[in-house]
């Protein structure tokens, strides 16, 4: 059931939010079980340089944002990285993503970060437009390599 038109509330996620976090990560394209989500939340909660925010409307989870802080050797300062940002499809286009983004930016500033970055898949053109509309500019090309056996 889609949440109604109530006010959006943003709060830190808790272990008990694992079912909602699992569903939201699935919406983002990174499926995990409730138990896996609980383990991931526990890892974030145990690390003071990470945050996981949950957006709710009328008590129903409708989005999340995750970020971490790290020192940048090349910039000589703290910087923040958004590692996940998703709004459930039934709650899209209500300003929830922008609200989550503003809250993450505020946390980054309060933590002393001079810069915030985010990466998104080349195929997610709607996400590219969203970030540009929110004042983010294109940056470097991102490369990744899996380190499995």
TrEMBL record:
Pfam families: Acetyltransf_1 (PF00583)
Taxonomy, superkingdom: Bacteria
Coiled-coil residue windows: none
Originating organism: Cognatilysobacter xinjiangensis
PANTHER family the record matches: AMINOALKYLPHOSPHONATE N-ACETYLTRANSFERASE-RELATED-RELATED
Keyword annotations: Acyltransferase, Transferase
PROSITE patterns tied to this protein: GNAT
Protein's name according to its UniProt entry: N-acetyltransferase
Signal peptide range in chain numbering: none
Domain annotation N-acetyltransferase: ranges: 8-149
């Amino acid at each position: 059931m889609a949440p109604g038109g109530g006010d959006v509330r943003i709060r830190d996620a808790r272990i008990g939010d694992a079912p909602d976090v699992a569903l939201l990560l699935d919406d983002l394209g990174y499926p995990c079980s409730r138990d896996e989500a609980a383990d991931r939340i526990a890892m974030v909660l145990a690390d003071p340089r990470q945050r996981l925010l949950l957006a709710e409307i009328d008590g129903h989870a409708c989005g999340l944002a995750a970020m971490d802080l790290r020192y940048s050797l090349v910039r000589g300062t703290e910087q923040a990285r958004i590692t996940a940002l998703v709004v459930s499809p039934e709650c899209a286009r209500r300003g929830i993503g922008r609200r989550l983004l503003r809250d993450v930016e505020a946390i980054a500033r309060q933590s002393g970060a001079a810069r915030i970055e985010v990466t998104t898949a080349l195929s997610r053109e709607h996400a590219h437009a969203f970030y540009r509309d929110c004042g983010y500019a294109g940056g470097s090309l991102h490369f990744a390599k899996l380190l499995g056996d």
